[in-house]
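Dear Dr. H.,

I hope your travels went smoothly. While you were away I took the liberty of generating a structure for the chain from your last submission, since the lab meeting agenda had it listed for discussion. I wanted you to have the full record in hand beforehand rather than looking at slides cold. The sequence, exactly as received, is reproduced here:
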Amino acid sequence: MTKEITKKKIIGIGVITSLIMLLAWGGIYLMRGMKANDTLVMDQGWTVSINDRTIEDVNLATFYFRNLKRLDSIEISRTITEDLSEGYTARVKAQFCSVEAFVDGVKIFSHGTEEVATNSFLGSSYVFIELPSNAQGKELRIRFIVNEKNYMTDIGSIRLDKTSEALRMYAKANAMSVYLNAFVMVFGVALIILGFITRSYGEDHVTLILIGAFSFFIGHWANCQGKIYTIFSSSITKLSAHEFICLYSAPIPIAIYIWRRYIKDGGWREKVLRVCVIVLTLFDIVACLLHVTNIARFPQTLTAYHIIGAVNLICILGSGVFHMRKERPSDLVVILAFCEVAVSTFLDLLRLNIQKAIFPNIDTIVEVSFLPMGAMMFVLMLTASYLFSLYEMVLSHAERDALTKIAYHDPLTGIYNRAKAKERFAEVDAQDSAYALVNFDVNGLKYVNDNFGHEEGDKLLKGIAEMIENFFGSIGTNYRMGGDEFLCIVDPAGIFTVNQMTERLERELKAVSEKSRYVYSVSYGIAYKNKGENRSISEVYAEADEKMYAMKEKSSFSRKALEGSV
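The corresponding predicted structure, in token form, is as follows:
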């Protein structure tokens, strides 16, 4: 019944999480749909030339390219009818291509022409072209030269904002994405720092570091992929390189996370996950080397990454995620997290492919991605799973400690029992160190039981155990060996105070006896073992036991003496 309730709670959390994600995406859609009154959109009336082919009266918001090759030329031109006297800047999408802008044949902007000429890597982002204030009535011509095969698919809407507010308007349009991605990045850095901090406390710090690394990679990738950093930096090439590095690196900590945390049986599933980690890591390294040497730039290895990533995802899900112990809340949350990120990825693919055909005129929907929100929810759910696992670990440790206490503690006196003493005997024999054994035997226990009842006998035992612990607990470890017998294994540092402690114990026993209906008394024997002496602890214990019985025989605490004293 409890398991069913737990599963229902986890499923409920998953449903609520999905609803929050959809509501947040709706908020992004509405926010991005709100355009400032001063923003001008130049979509209609363009003439588009693709190499030698010319198309008139094109709407850029719904115009797409197919199968463009490197060095293909696209030119778009249009007469500027808008009043630009207040000074406007055009925001133009540049997808791995160079951009040149002309007003009545005069070049006013150039980006990436040198990289295209030298066949170097050229990133993808937005470029900001400042237009002359007297451009109204003149022809605006923008030329694109493709640098990567099949990667330039559209130009999209060209938006004009006042030059003084161009970056602010771009930041406003991407405010929610900046917030989400920054949250994911900062959250990842915080988890990594927390992971290193908890390392000194012996906790599972690696899990936190892995989740944090994934969170940072995915947040940084989302910012690069969404062209957010264009607000702060004009280095498009470096930002695009960061985008691919983060994309290629993000699956590695997740694969390690599943491997480390759930599959450690040495069977085929662990081997599969190990191969996944190795393949993903090698691909990341090889792709970076190929890019640096300009043999195959990042966009050229993206298809291979999609294939390798899809295969590894299937292997991770099949051999790791779906073989977890589904009755544990932490594992259920992980399964829900992977399902959630799979749904987010599917919806984003749907957005990129199907919505362009169904809603070709609604540019805002096409630009909004599910992945940043999906990644944020994935990271939060993995963190929740980690917290669940910590809770389960605490419960497990508590249960283990309780069982250990039952197994190794005497229920009456609360000190260690004979089973624990035997373990300690083996440890002491394995070491060559000096120690002392003090063997105690309670005098008159049978007499107290017979005349005052077993409750009083238990009280006598607990009282004497407490006194032994008070005096000998600071110099050694005490055990109840059974019945009325106790033992103290004295540490090397306490050997020289044994006689002092026995004298203090005798004085305390005498003081308590004066206030009691019966006598508190013990007989004891002390035996020492020096360092380097070839004797086992059993032999030393036998010597202490023999001395204890010798003291008992000499003592006056016979049954008659006890009766007389009472």
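Two observations you may find useful: Confidence is low (pLDDT under 50) at residues 1-10, 30-36, 359-367, 557-566. Residues 371-408 form the longest helix (38 residues).

With kind regards,
E. W.
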